[in-house]
Specification:
Layout lengths: L1 E10 L3 E4 H7 L4 H8 L3 E4 L5 H16 L8 E5 L10 H9 L5 E5 L5 H14 L5 E8 L10 H4 L5 E10 L4 E8 L7 E3 L28 E3 L1 H22 L7 E6 L4 H10 L21 H11 L8 E8 L3 E8 L5
Parallel strand pairs: 4-5, 4-6, 11-12
Antiparallel strand pairs: 1-7, 2-3, 6-7, 8-13, 9-10, 12-13
Helix pairs in contact: 3-4, 7-8
Bound molecules: coenzyme A.
Length: 335
């Protein structure tokens, strides 16, 4: 049994924030941000929730696929910035769109979340448990950013992307690779809520709340360590996933990388001796939207008519955990 991508969608909050606007908040400049990251602007929630953006992206993906809400039986939302611990983003999307037949759950794997969700949905479809899936990446990272930390606040944006997956008679999703290294998790963290029960030491103490202090409930990062990890993880993931699909790098029309930093992507292209033009980027006008970045880029390409039937795409991500992964997709849709 095969699976394919039937349609894509995305959504942004209404508010656009430029580098010059950030330079009013922290000691930075448009020149520093663009030269170090490639980012010019990002979209920041003015009230939209993660579930709002996820539902809008999902509705757009359903319309693009021509699939009715009642035909979706699985929803997986990747996020590191859910609105609640429960109900999940996926269940909120179910409520908003009337996906009454669906089993819904969220998946938490840092910026690799969409790749892990795609792999999970693909496996569940191929196993025969489900027949049509909505896979979503949605984030409102702006609530987790320390807006006084110039080293991180310039990098991130909010948004959502989605894809509809279905069973097919010809191969669409060809292979996946994935990996994690929890021993290096400290280089990119977002702390959780502290233990605060009547019996906890000092009430707001640190015991029992995981390895981070609750004053670290913002994105903290060792930028240079993440940079080095990202370059290696992306290169090895693309190479391995391509091999598993019995393809060579020449067969890949586009690489759709996690949109974190232009210099990371440039470096991967150089190491792999691949033309930079094969790496699709939209981070200049989106910033790093974590789990949402790959499906938002895929949707932008789809709507721009860049994807042709038979093209091979390599979707590749890396992020907190640490986690990494790649999926090879054979595009089957007529545009
Ligand atoms: C974050 C990142 C852009 C920083 O770039 P860098 O070249 O490594 O810069 P450094 O951290 O070495 O900082 C260099 C200087 O710029 C300063 N700086 C940091 N952020 C700045 C900003 N927004 N504006 C101006 N100066 C800044 C630093 O304070 C430092 O100053 P110093 O030399 O006086 O100490 C880069 O490391 C990166 O992109 N890493 C990967 C991050 C990532 O992708 N994370 C998400 C993973 S999912």
């Amino acid at each position: 049994m095969y699976t394919e991508i039937l349609g894509t969608g995305s959504a942004l909050p209404k508010q656009r924030i430029t580098n010059d606007e950030l330079a009013v908040l922290v000691d930075t400049s448009d020149e520093w941000i663009t030269s170090r990251t490639g980012i010019s602007e990002r979209w920041i929630s003015a009230g939209e929730s993660t579930s709002d953006l996820a539902a809008e992206a999902a509705a757009n993906a359903l319309a693009d696929a021509g699939v009715e809400p009642a035909d979706i039986d699985l929803v997986i939302s990747a996020t590191v910035s859910p609105d609640n611990f429960t109900p999940t983003v996926s269940c909120e999307v179910q409520k908003a769109l009337g996906l009454s037949q669906a089993t819904c759950f969220d998946l938490w794997a840092g910026c690799t979340g969409f790749i892990f969700s795609l792999m999970t949905a693909d496996s569940l479809l191929k196993s025969g448990f489900f027949s049509r899936a909505l896979v979503i990446g949605a984030e409102v990272l702006s609530k987790l950013v320390d807006w006084e930390d110039r080293a991180t606040c310039v990098l991130f944006g909010d948004g959502a992307g989605a894809a509809v997956l279905g069973r097919s008679s010809e191969p669409g999703l060809l292979s996946h690779v994935s990996g994690s290294d929890g021993s290096r998790g400290e280089v990119l963290t977002i702390g959780g809520v502290p233990l605060m029960n009547p019996w906890s030491p000092e009430r707001a103490g640190t015991a029992g709340q995981g390895s981070l202090n609750h004053d670290q409930s913002v994105i903290c990062m060792n930028g240079q360590e993440v940079f080095k990890f990202a370059v290696r993880a992306m290169e090895s993931s693309i190479r391995r996933a391509t091999e598993l699909s019995d393809l060579s790098l020449h067969d890949i029309s586009y690489i759709i990388p996690h949109q974190a930093n232009n210099r990371i992507i440039q470096s991967v292209a150089g190491r792999m001796e691949m033309p930079r033009e094969k790496f699709f980027t939209n981070l200049d006008h989106r910033g790093n939207t974590s789990s949402a970045s790959i499906p938002m880029a895929l949707d932008e390409m789809n709507r721009a008519g860049l994807l042709l039937p038979g093209m091979h795409l390599a979707l590749v991500g890396f992020g907190g955990g640490l986690t990494w992964g790649a999926s090879i997709v054979r595009w089957t849709r007529q545009s």
